[in-house]
Amino acid sequence: MRVIPRLLALCCAVVSAHSMAVPLSDLYRVREPVASQQPAEREEALRKAFDTLVLRLTGDSSSDQKAVAPLRNDPQQLVSRYAYEGDAVIVSFDPVTTERALRSAGIPLWGAERPSILTWWLGESANGSQLVGDAQEGSADLRAAAQHRGLPLRLPLADLSEQLVATPDTITARDPQALRDVSERYDTDGLLAVMAKQSGETWQANWRLWLGDKQTQGKVSGDTRAALADEVMLAVSTFLAPQYRVEPGDSSDITLEVLGADVGRFAELDRLLEPFGARLQRVDSDRLVYRLNASPEQLRAQLALARLQEVTLDEFDPPLDTAGTDTALDPVDSGEVSAGGAEAPPIEAQIPPEAPGVSTSEPSQPADQGTLLRYRW
């Protein structure tokens, strides 16, 4: 029996304490309302579900419609199953088939690993203001909207201390420090502050988003609170997607070194690098060397989800000789590993010499290593 699949199972079972990014398990599951279960109604719902999925995966409502037209005309070729639930049809698209078809059409895609967003949603009406907490009225609308737009949503507990802080002044402030202070307990990637007001028969919201050193804001409206929540999440998704989606053709060869890996961190990094088809080349104690093809800026944004810090060559002590990491390896005989694949070894200390997979010896001196990026936890 081969050692690596068993080690990988152990690796994936370990939950990293450092992980903030959230892999969305229901990314390819779409809920669309239907008026009936008639075939014509179902086919139209499948097309709408496909449109929702494409927007969820790209964050771009102007994606090349001509390129995806054949898929939209017959979305059932991508559907693994569908089922009716009340007045809606739940459509589950096959992830592998769908991703392959969209990439073949030249569509840039945003993977399942996405930044977690803590949302401070303050609703204001004639009855006063109310912070939407994790188990309070209105939370279901926010969760449904986040799922519909492909965002990992977290809500505060909305206990007394948080309600005292989440006032209209702090929610609408340009400086989020007051919210940051009460948000530390949740340890999420981004912070979203929403001030929602009901005016007659409509709802309006001003929102601000902070993610790392980036921020944006906007104003949306909707006929209902649920519709308003959907508009907010769509705006957030549209802002985030370009930072993470992988553009066809906009990439270069990259050698990535990561220092400070352990079992849980390896599993997290393996998921993060999956959209780039990364190949694990070497393991040296807690140091990993990958080869991949990606845009450096997109890769930097993806690695930021795991709170990895980019470092210079001098900070690696001693620096790892990466010459030769592009040596051709046969995936069967030598065990070349792709991120997300079933042959990836975990990192415990040293890979045992008898374990098939990744070479820990000094490689020969061949090909260009491409752009070199170095990171540490």
Automatic annotation (TrEMBL):
**In the record, what lineage is assigned to the organism producing the protein?**
Bacteria, Pseudomonadati, Pseudomonadota, Gammaproteobacteria, Pseudomonadales
Q: Which domain of life is it from?
A: Bacteria
Protein name per Swiss-Prot or TrEMBL: DUF2066 domain-containing protein
Query: Pfam families this protein is in?
Result: DUF2066
- Species for this entry: Stutzerimonas xanthomarina
Alphabetically ordered keywords of this record = Signal
List compositional bias (Low complexity) regions by residue number.
Answer: 342-352
Residues covered by region (Disordered): 316-377
Q: Where is the composition biased (Polar residues)?
A: 358-368
Presence of keyword Signal: yes
Give the residue range of the signal peptide.
1-21
Kindly give the InterPro entries that the UniProt entry links to this protein. Answer: DUF2066
